[in-house]
Amino acid sequence: MTLTPDLFSRACESARANLKVALDLLAIHGEKAVSGPQHRSSLNPFTALAAAGAWERFLADVVGAAQNTAAKPWPGPGHFELPERKVNGKTLSPKWIPSDLNTYLRGEGVITGIADLTDFWEAWLQDPAVVKPVMDPRDWDYVRYPQTPSRFEQALKNAQYMRNGAAHFALPQNAIKSIPYGYIWEGDAGSDTIQHWAALAVTSLFLQLIDCSIAAIAKDHGWTRNTDYRPIPPGWFKATVPASDKRYPGLQFWKGEPLR
Fold first, then answer.
1. What whole-number distance in Å separates Cα of residue 154 and Cα of residue 136?
2. How large is the average pLDDT for residues 143-161?
3. Alpha-helix residue ranges (DSSP H) falling in the chain
4. Which of 72, 161, 205, 253 has its CB 3.0 to 4.6 Å from that of 178, i.e. a possible disulfide?
């Protein structure tokens, strides 16, 4: 069982397509500026859910591709779920706990070198220690996992609860679970929902993590960007998406702030 560049490229292509769902919802949300009670607030939970789903599917697709054999070929994106794995009696949670993810991916042959996947993680993250009515991208911090792993651990736990709350219409319950990690979702939409800036933070988290993880896996295997695989479109990280982008030209997903 060996992860090959062509199969990896298919997993990356699927990740791009799935991230578009979350970005599409952000684009729709921003079509008309309004305040107070609003129908578009219903988009926020499912934007976060779509972004988290893209992350979960990317991991499952990469692991599935790595298990490809002649006798049992990988059927492609969307056809594989992460098998449960235990280490020293502990069930790993690779989607939401970074150290578990490192252990899991090594066990599945996705990462084989000296560096762990998370050694390559860097992202603009919401700071849970700062409490403001609105925490837009201008309030985010640039964080590298090797220096401050706890910020990524907190962000992923918050994203997990936000994802679960959206998926099961249990936002009040899951919002309470996020409080110990410093996250508060309260908004002005007059209902149990997720404030737009919180959905924006979770979408950017997974956009950046998928991008960093693609680069980490490719480096681990010695593959070349744009030759062996296509990365996440760089325009999606810019303050303003370039006009050359056919899907989102001129959009400012991150409130005029770049993620790179």
1. 18
2. 96
3. 5-29, 43-66, 98-107, 149-167, 171-178, 196-221
4. 161
Q: Which two tokens stand for residue 228?
A: 């062996």
Residue pair 185/195 in contact by the 8 Å Cβ criterion:
yes
For tokens 């992460």, what's the residue?
A: 82
Query: Rounded to an integer, what distance in angstroms lies between the CA atom of residue 23 and that of residue 29?
Result: 10
Enter the pTM of the model.
Answer: 0.93
pLDDT at 179: 75
* Of the candidates 109, 125, 107, 101, the residue with the CA atom closest to the CA atom of residue 65: 109
CA distance 174 to 188: 18
Half-sphere exposure of 249 (CA within 13 A, CB side): 4
Torsions phi, psi for 86 (to 5 deg): -120, 145
Residue 35, SS3? coil
